[in-house]
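Repro:
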Amino acid sequence: HFHPKFNDQHWAPGVYGCAALICILWGYLVLQGNIGIIWPLFGVSNQLLGTMTLAVGTTVIMRLGRKRYAWVTGIPCILMAIVAIAADYENVFYSYIPAGKWILVAFSAAMFLMILIVLIEAVRSWIRLSSIPQDYRTQAEIEAESLVKYGKEVKA
């Protein structure tokens, strides 16, 4: 962590400082030209958001013990990540570096790192969750087993 106080969402200097930094950086990007210059960043960030959403969805599905359905969100997650990485690569090497837009290169590199971190952590959790045996019991079977095991009546 940069500073321990940044963990506190109610710490005023952190809240206002981060908001000011974001506004200043946004203003800098806008003043570099027109809004079309940063438009590709929105595309990559949208793909990143889709990748994160699908990764979280896949993880939730696996945590709920429905591993057999994880492919429904897992495959699109991987495809979205590929699209985001390819778009980020093209932005950096075919648009930003030739034009000397180094701040945009830095933003694109940061988004690439975010995509990479999300994918690595998601795959690590998927591997861990896939080793847990799947439970096919119904709620009634689980309650009956609890009744036998603990000798208490389960009240609804």
